[in-house]
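On clarity, I found the account of how folds are encoded harder to follow than it need be. What matters is that the chain and its backbone geometry are given together, residue for residue. I therefore recommend that a typical entry be quoted early in the introduction. An entry of this sort, consisting of the sequence and the corresponding backbone structure tokens, reads as follows:
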Amino acid sequence: MDKKVILSGIQATGNLTLGNYLGALSNWVEMQDEYNCYYMIADLHTLTIRNEPDALRKHTLELIALYIAAGLDPDKNTIFIQSHVPAHTELSWILNCYTYMGELSRMTQFKDKASKHADNINSGLFTYPVLMASDILLYNADLVPVGEDQRQHLELTRDIAQRFNSIYGDTFTVPDAYIAKVGAKIMGLQNPTAKMSKSSQDPMDIILLTDSPEDIRKKFKKAVTDSENCVRYDKENKPGVSNLMGIYGMIKKKTMEEIEEEFSGQGYGAFKTAVAEAVVERLEPIQAKYYSLLEDTEKLKQIYEKGDKKAEERASKMISEVYKKVGLVV
């Protein structure tokens, strides 16, 4: 039986956080033997905000290195750069013509980003979900790993696919959300009620995958907790402690009950130290491989060129089929 297809990607807008790793990359690694996986560097999506060109190119290569350092095998996964496959933008234009203004205006992420970038509310920001739909439908992805902030976009993708299929016959696979067997949203260390984000303005709020062991220990030492000094999971009343327990549990593969028992009678100092050391231990080999890859730019180029070619082969078949169905001469 053919493996189901999974597609996902991360924007090339700077270093990834521990939240990106535990919430996405580590799950992707678990999928690579079971599914036919396409993982892109979503560089076109980054253009909705202003980027320094040299920085964007640098971040793109760094992200490829982090994908591989985190455990993605380029022989098992198709790792490619979105902008290197022209069919993404070609299909996006066509699907724009099958997407309604009212649908796009209801996207909550557009409203959120527009409020944060009031001086640059561009049409790309508005039609971003259509490009995302094109990314997914181009490869007939069966499953898409999405967080809560992207679930609305996936629903729109399903609507667009079903609308197109109803007009032209069976063309696109209607994708489903992939729900990881293990996983949790990692929150900020200083603001544990908000998701850990690489766009955070507070460096103490996030753990970057390239942070030094000393910085990691310092950030966890200053992580927000509460006055109870008891390691107990209570997401509503103890968000800081619960977030640290979630991080520790995912790395050590322990339940919240096991963590409570392990640190029974111990204060937050010992607990924070244990969490920090678990993170340092997990990230050290990833960092070593990452820096080694960055020094071998020719190897990185070979990896993404191989992935680009494989992605292009699959995407070109779909875009040709779509062109024929809508009446374009091919």
